[in-house]
Amino acid sequence: MDSRIPRRRLLKSLGLALCSPLLSKLAFASENEWVLGFGSCMDLRKNQSFWETLNSRRFSHFAFLGDNLYPERDSLSELEKAYQKLSLSEGLTALKSRVNISAIWDDHDFGADNADSTLPFRRESLSLFRSFWMQDYASEEDGVYSSRMIEHQGRKIHLIMLDARYNRTAYGAASLEPMQPDDVEEVVGEPVLLGNRQWEWLETQLDVPADLKIIGSSIQVLSSDHRFEKWMNYPSEHQRLMKALGRISAPSLILSGDRHLHEISRTQLVSGRAIYDFTSSGFNRAEGLSRFEKNRLRVQRSLEDGFGEIRLKWVDGVPFVTMSMVDRNGEVRFTHSDYLV
After folding, report:
1. How would you write the chain as a 3-class SS string?
2. What is the reported pLDDT for 190?
3. In what order do the strands lie in the sheet with 306-315?
C-alpha cells in the first residue's frame, strides 16, 4: 500500500491545510532540508536592502531567473555599464562567495525591452553574460541554458534552466530570416521560443533519471490570462513543454520571473499530476499595478519586493516542498506546501 496517500489524508483530517502556518513553521525548522532561493528583476537604481535579508538565510543553491540588471537604455554600451555596476554589488558578491548559483537572462539583461533573436548585439550580449556569471552552459553559442544534477540525502534533484530569449522570434513570425543560418533551422508557420537545438537538449534532459525536476524559465509557463510575455504567446511551444512534462515519471516544479509580482500557479498535467509555477519577481521591482493582473490558476500572490524559497524534504521518497515568498524585511508573505507526485 502506498503510504503517501494516508499521510496526506491524515494531515487534512487533522485540519492542517497544506499552506498552513504550522507546516510552514515546521518547514523552516529542519537542518536536513534542501533549500533553493530564487528571484528576478533586480534594479541597481532602486533600494538594495533586500540583500541583507537574502544573505542572512541558508540556501543550498540560488537561481537568478532574468532581468538581473536594468541598463539605462537599450544599447550595448549601456548593457556593458550595467554589468560593471552589478560587479560592484557587495550583496551579490557575498552571496556568490557562499552559495552555488545558476543564472539565466530575460529581456533587460539580454539587452532590450521584449527583445528577441533580432537584437542587433545579441552575440555580444551572450559574451557579456557568460563572462559575468561564469556558468557551465550546455551550448557555447546557442544561448544560456544549462542543467545541474544535485544530490540530496541519496536523491537526485535536476535543475534545468531555460533560455527563452536568444532564439525566440516575434509573436506570429513565420520564419527566422533575420537570424544567421547556423543559429536555428528555419521554421514556417509557428513562432519559435527555444529553438530546435535547445528543444533537442531539453527533451534529452527530461529523460535523465531524477527524483525531482525543477525547470527555471524567465517568463511564466502556466499563467495565461494576462496580455504580457508568457509561454502561451507561443501556443505550440507551450503545448510541447506541457506534454513533455506530462510524460516523464519524475515529479516536476516550474520557477519563473518577469511579471513584477510573486505568485504560485497550479494546474494538472495530462498524466493527472499537479504541477506548480512559482513566480518570483522582483527583488526590488514588484509593482502595485500587478494587482489587476488576472490568473485563473493562482494559488497565492504578493506584491511586495522580495524573493522565493523552495524548501524540500523527502517523505517516504516523495518530495514534499514548501514554497514561500520572503519580503525584503524577512517577513514570509505567503507559503504553500504540497507533495509532488
Report:
1. CCCHHHHHHHHHHCCCCCCCHHHHHHHHHCCCCEEEEEECCCCCCCCCCHHHHHHCCCCCEEEECCCCCCCCCCCHHHHHHHHHHHCCCHHHHHHHHHCCEEECCCHHHHCCCCCCCCCCCHHHHHHHHHHHHCCCCCCCCCCCCEEEEEEECCEEEEEEECCCCCCCCCCCCCCCCCCCCCCCCCCCCCCCCCCHHHHHHHHHHHCCCCCEEEEEECCCCCCCCCCCCCHHHCHHHHHHHHHHHHHCCCCEEEEECCCCCEEEEEEECCCCCEEEEEEECCCCCCCHHHHHCCCCCEEEEECCCEEEEEEEEEECCEEEEEEEEEECCCCEEEEEEEECC
2. 79
3. 101-103, 61-64, 34-39, 306-315, 318-327, 332-339
Give me the pLDDT at residue 171, please: 79
**pLDDT score at 293:** 92
Q: Which residues of the chain have pLDDT under 70?
A: 1-30, 172-189
The model's pLDDT over 98-132, given as tens digits with 9 standing for 90+, comes to 999 999 999 999 999 999 999 999 999 999 999 99
What's residue 291's pLDDT? 87
Fold of 4-339: Purple Acid Phosphatase; chain A, domain 2 (3.60.21)
